[in-house]
């Protein structure tokens, strides 16, 4: 799918994901976390059929599990003691907090995974370029340089191998050989970069202030989404400041009160990309059925 | 408008005693296509770079360069960046950005163009160059030809009035090179952009240029229209420049020696027209094909045999080699031809032991140390500060007690004058000779070479052919990967064509190229109706010389 949420202006997409991560970190509450996690899973399915998730889900789960296990072992806070490990108390409160904190982490990773698919390299560079044009320029040059260096290193290694080097032997000899090859790579690259500097000057680099190509235009739909996000962020933030959607863990667990309007606003935030994608698909269905 | 008037221009690099340019006069009119030829170090590049303020080398300059009637020094840098575009030899060194469209914007961003203007220019230039399908690709996925085309497109974004090109096709295969030249001709014809081009491979360019200069030691030696220059070179009996002429023109000038007037054929089309008439006019002038123009490769016990060799990069990578089978005999010179990405270099690296084949059989009676490998880029071999240290280091790692072999190689490749220079500071041809010397220090029985004629001027190419001949005489076997059809036709014992993962049509050149229609030499395309088995100028002349007094 290339339309829908994915085609949103990078600025709106960045705002959306930053908001999501902020809320998830703040609102440590099972209902909120499960809602966010569920929506993100659905979004992953919509974006690439879950291909990226298929590779990464084990890592996400492992990170969450690690934190969930580590917290009760490290933290001894909480009033309800379940038992002792050595002479350290293990409390119910730190177990529950660990569990929810682990869940938070997994959901955040899910969010980053989706963000990486929506905010592609081009979009990321556009975002960086509007605020930090020099940084974005350097990143692009490095991206260009890395495959070039890799190819040169392969050629150097091939030359060395056919000259009977890199064949093993003593450790000190191997290290010396590797250093020599790196030296060749550096000298070679310096040599080529002199040529590149001339070519850059030839195309006017350094003859005045640079501009940056802005590949993305803010359209009506993007502005609408921005207004909507603003309209949702206000009540969510205000409610959160009031303590909505947050559990108290220490010294004693609080209940799982749910303030429905606040929860509803948050749920809408989480589901927005899915709804946009569904809307896009429906629109296509309608266009198709009309023809 | 874009005129150049160059008057008595001389230039000397700092620390050099000889001038790089010596009293050059040249008038270039708007819309001209100027071709500059000459050996490496003749001052072509120096001259070209003096025509654009941003890329002028530091040094001592005399004489004047007028651009549109005003001194070039007075042109402001911004106008110079826009109006005078430059393309260099190595496609990779000119690409700064990561993706194709970023690179297309690079020059415009440098000059601070607004986004709306950049979009308009893109929308115009991208279809002109047919780049739509690879616009969003990262640069490293492009072929060399595509990269050079990208460089040309990026320059065209600024709407230049002059294009300066420094051997732009030297690193490209023949098909990519002619595609690039075609684009350039279109730009010159349709947009009237002035083109000033330095090149070694002049054959395809002679017919397109309306002004040709040949340079030697900083001076313009021959100058004028292509046909005039061809005749001038021939009549001056300047042996240094004869290899620069199209083979067809050389044939004509030798076989029609008494015709002092009339057009000299420069293309296959003109050449064929002339040869057809010549054939009718002088019946029976060509004799039988003489035996053994080139000694046939001896048929001994094979040195190396592969059967159904298979190789692919990674589990999901493309199958580069699928069923490659061939036999290599001792003391033969085998040239492996094939298009870009056909797997020629991969096959060579498998044979050299750099890569390991995944299927099929590779049988050889050679030890790994008996196989020498000359890779495509000499710079990959240099680990020392001077040529001498580099050679000595190699001799030491091979445990060569005496210096006899090393001294012989230094003499053979004429490396004495550069022994104390840094390997990066010597010419491309010398770098290649140094690598050959390094490889031959191990006295390998089989030498594998990856595109050794790339970027060499015709003189250096002839020298290379001479050295390879000496190696063959000493009993070595050579397997070369190349795009250079003319070189293969003139020197190889056998040729093979790698296509779609397999090795097809292995045969000696006279058979191999005779069977081809496109993939053959200019001479063969000219004479094949009458002399179907001749693929080189020497071959045709050998049969002509028999009956002529």
UniProtKB/TrEMBL annotation, chain A:
Give the primary localization class.
membrane
GO cellular component terms given for this protein:
plasma membrane
Q: Does the keyword NAD apply?
A: no
The record's keywords, sorted A to Z, are: Membrane, Transmembrane, Transmembrane helix
The domain of life is Bacteria
Which InterPro entries does the record associate with it? ABC/ECF_trnsptr_transmembrane (IPR003339)
| Topology within the bilayer | Multi-pass membrane protein
List the subcellular locations. Membrane
Q: Transmembrane segments in this chain: where?
A: 12-45, 57-74, 95-118, 124-146, 225-243, 263-282
Q: What is this protein called?
A: Energy-coupling factor transport system permease protein
Organism, as annotated: Anaerotalea alkaliphila
UniProtKB/TrEMBL annotation, chain B:
Major site of localization recorded for this protein: membrane
Q: Establish whether keyword Nucleus is in the entry.
A: no
Membrane topology of the entry? Peripheral membrane protein
SUPFAM superfamilies attached here?
P-loop containing nucleoside triphosphate hydrolases
Pfam families per UniProt: ABC_tran
Q: What residue stretches are annotated with the ABC transporter domain?
A: 4-242, 304-525
So what family is this one in?
Belongs to the ABC transporter superfamily.
**What name does the UniProt record give this protein?**
ATP-binding cassette domain-containing protein
Q: From which organism does this entry originate?
A: Anaerotalea alkaliphila
């Amino acid at each position: 799918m290339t339309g829908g949420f994915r085609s949103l202006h990078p600025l709106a997409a960045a705002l959306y994901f930053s908001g999501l991560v902020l809320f998830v970190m703040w609102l440590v509450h099972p209902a909120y976390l499960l809602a966010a996690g569920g929506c993100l899973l659905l979004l992953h399915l919509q974006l690439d059929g879950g291909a990226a998730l298929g590779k990464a889900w084990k890592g996400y789960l492992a990170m969450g599990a690690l934190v969930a296990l580590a917290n009760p072992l490290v933290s001894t806070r909480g009033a309800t003691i379940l038992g002792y490990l050595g002479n350290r108390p293990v409390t119910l409160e730190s177990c529950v907090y660990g569990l929810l904190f682990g869940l938070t982490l997994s959901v955040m990773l899910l969010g980053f995974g989706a963000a990486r698919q929506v905010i592609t390299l081009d979009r990321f560079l556009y975002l960086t370029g509007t605020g930090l044009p020099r940084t974005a320029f350097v990143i692009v040059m490095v991206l260009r340089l890395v495959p070039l260096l890799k190819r040169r290193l392969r050629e150097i290694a091939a030359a060395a191998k056919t000259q009977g080097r890199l064949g093993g032997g003593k450790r000190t000899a191997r290290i010396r050989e590797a250093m020599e090859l790196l030296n060749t790579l550096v000298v070679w690259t310096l040599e080529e970069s002199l040529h590149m500097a001339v070519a850059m000057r030839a195309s006017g680099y350094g003859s005045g202030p640079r501009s940056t190509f802005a590949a993305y235009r803010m359209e009506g739909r993007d502005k609408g989404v921005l207004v909507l996000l603003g309209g949702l962020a206000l009540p969510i933030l205000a409610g959160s400041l009031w303590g909505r959607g947050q559990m108290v863990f220490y010294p004693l667990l609080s209940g799982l009160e749910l303030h429905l309007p606040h929860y509803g606003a948050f749920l809408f935030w989480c589901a927005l990309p899915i709804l946009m994608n569904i809307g896009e698909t429906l629109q296509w269905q309608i266009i198709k059925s009309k023809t | 408008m874009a005129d150049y008037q160059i008057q008595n221009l001389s230039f000397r690099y700092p620390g050099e005693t000889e001038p790089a340019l010596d009293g050059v006069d040249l008038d270039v009119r708007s819309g001209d296509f100027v071709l500059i030829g000459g050996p490496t170090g003749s001052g072509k590049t120096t001259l070209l770079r003096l025509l654009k303020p941003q890329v002028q080398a530091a040094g001592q300059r005399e004489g004047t360069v007028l651009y549109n009637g005003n001194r070039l020094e007075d042109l402001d840098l911004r106008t110079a960046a826009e109006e005078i575009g430059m393309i260099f030899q190595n496609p990779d060194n000119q690409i700064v950005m990561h993706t194709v469209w970023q690179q297309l914007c690079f020059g415009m961003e440098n000059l601070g163009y607004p986004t709306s203007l950049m979009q308009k220019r893109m929308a115009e230039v991208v279809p002109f160059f047919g780049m739509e399908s690879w616009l969003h690709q990262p640069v490293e996925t492009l072929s060399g030809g595509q990269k050079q085309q990208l460089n040309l497109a990026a320059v065209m974004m600024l709407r230049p009035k002059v294009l300066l090109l420094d051997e732009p096709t030297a690193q490209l295969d023949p098909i990519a090179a002619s595609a690039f030249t075609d684009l350039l001709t279109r730009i010159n014809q349709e947009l009237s952009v002035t083109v000033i081009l330095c090149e070694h491979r002049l054959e395809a360019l002679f017919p397109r240029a309306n002004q040709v200069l040949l340079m030697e030691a900083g001076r313009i030696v021959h100058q004028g229209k292509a046909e005039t220059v061809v005749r001038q070179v021939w009549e001056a009996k300047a042996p240094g420049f004869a290899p620069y002429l199209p083979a067809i023109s050389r044939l004509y000038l030798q076989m029609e020696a008494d015709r002092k007037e009339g057009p000299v054929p420069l293309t296959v089309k003109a050449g064929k027209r002339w040869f057809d008439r010549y054939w009718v006019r002088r019946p029976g002038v060509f004799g039988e094909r003489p035996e053994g123009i080139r000694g046939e490769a001896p048929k001994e016990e094979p040195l190396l045999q592969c059967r159904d060799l298979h190789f692919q990069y990674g589990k999901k990578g493309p199958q580069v080699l699928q069923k490659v089978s061939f036999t290599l005999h001792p003391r033969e010179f085998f040239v492996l031809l094939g298009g870009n990405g056909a797997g020629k270099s991969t096959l060579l690296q498998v044979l050299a032991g750099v890569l390991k084949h995944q299927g099929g059989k590779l049988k050889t009676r050679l030890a790994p140390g008996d196989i020498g490998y000359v890779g495509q880029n000499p710079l990959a071999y240099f680990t020392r500060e001077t040529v001498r240290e580099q050679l000595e280091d190699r001799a030491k790692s091979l445990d060569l007690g005496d210096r006899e072999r090393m001294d012989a190689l230094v003499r053979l490749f004429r490396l004495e004058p550069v022994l104390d220079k840094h390997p990066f500071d010597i010419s491309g041809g010398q770098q290649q000779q140094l690598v050959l010397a390094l490889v031959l220090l191990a006295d390998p029985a089989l030498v594998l070479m990856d595109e050794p004629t790339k970027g060499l001027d015709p003189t250096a190419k002839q020298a290379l052919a001479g050295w390879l001949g000496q190696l063959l005489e000493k009993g070595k076997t050579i397997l070369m990967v190349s795009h250079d059809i003319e070189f293969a036709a003139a020197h190889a014992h056998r040729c093979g064509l790698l296509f779609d993962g397999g090795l097809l049509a292995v045969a000696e050149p006279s058979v191999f190229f005779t069977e081809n229609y496109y993939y053959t030499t200019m001479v063969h395309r000219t004479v094949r109706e009458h002399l179907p088995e001749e693929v080189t100028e020497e071959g045709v002349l050998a049969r002509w010389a028999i009956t002529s007094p």
